[in-house]
């Protein structure tokens, strides 16, 4: 039996024109980093796909799981390398199909190397007939369905050996890691902000995380442990992460003491954005990411989001603005952050909540509400109190590699 390999398909990268090689190089690098510690023999590029060869077949299950977290992959499959011969293609196709359970099938061939003497129609007809005869001889009730087959046996003829596989595994899509620039995400610990970060990471952005925390109401209820676990879960998508932990309760108390109650929550958000902007500039990031969903809560009406965002010059991305809660929760379950965010923790934002929060604040109203605050001093206090934690994904594990207190500028 031929040695199994992994065929990696990409889709969106084909739209990159003259920049395609840059993105493919980044995708190849991401594959190598994801497979670190496994028996990787080589990564080739025959035609319009990437081909991963492993030295040890025992590492194949781990490789499959790791590839699920590599953005830029449209789909991938465990394939067989086969001699460029129709009899060899038929034998390999049968070995792929025979253990599977299905009631209908089709054969799909792709010939990127036109020097192969048989065209696509011939390959599909000959291999399909061979499979049907063998299946019927084995007493299996199956039929050919070219439009909606339950199983598709795929044959690819690139330059070099042929490839045969029967099951494709969906990839996350998007763009390879570290192709979209650096951003900083406001990470609350809830469902939304982690999903917002993941959406931007899938577009190639490299994310650092800012988490604002207060003292827990009871021991063990601090939000810091939730933020750490979320960062650990998201780090495999980009291999390294920073988590900025900002003590925020004393800053909130200043807002409660001096600012109008109805604007209290919006002023918290403004201070968070200002602190995040300072940290983003130190981190050479170009934008801030927030988990706001339009109209989901009082602080996320359109007017409130505009009035809050006006306090910073750096762009604020809100990738969940058009998503509802059910859509957000579905993604959270898929990427593994749902159960972490569902844990009980002490969220600093609901502390000292106003009885009647403003729904349609303007920039001018919030500017006036802040007039009694020393905003620069509060931002400086937040930045100087930051603790930075660094995480790294290597050999299939996430480890915390550093924790330090930020020094005053």
Give the CATH architecture of the largest domain: 3-Layer(aba) Sandwich
Could you spell the SSE succession in H and E letters?
Answer: EHEEHEHEHEEEEEHEHEHHEHEHHHHEE
Principal-axis shape = elongated
Distance between the termini: 63 Å
Characterize the structure shown.
- Helix 8 (264-282) packs across helix 13.
- It contains 13 helices and 16 strands.
- Strand 7 (151-157) and strand 8 (162-165) form a beta hairpin.
- The strands form 2 sheets. Strands 1, 2, 3, 4, 5, 6, 7, 8 and 9 form a 9-stranded mixed β-sheet that branches. The chain has a 7-stranded mixed β-sheet with strand order 14-13-10-11-12-15-16, sandwiched between helices.
- It is an alpha/beta fold and 409 residues long.
- The longest helix is centred in the C-terminal third of the chain and has 19 residues, at 264-282.
- It starts with a strand and ends with a strand.
- It has 2 domains: 4-170, VC0802-like (2-Layer Sandwich), CATH 3.30.2130.30; 182-405, 3-Layer(aba) Sandwich (Rossmann fold).
Question: What does this entry show, briefly?
Answer:
The chain has helices at 20-34, 60-67, 86-97, 120-137, 191-202, 224-234, 249-258, 264-282, 302-309, 325-335, 338-341, 363-369, 375-384, and strands spanning 4-9, 40-44, 50-54, 75-82, 104-111, 143-144, 151-157, 162-165, 169-170, 182-186, 206-213, 240-247, 287-289, 316-317, 387-394, 397-405.
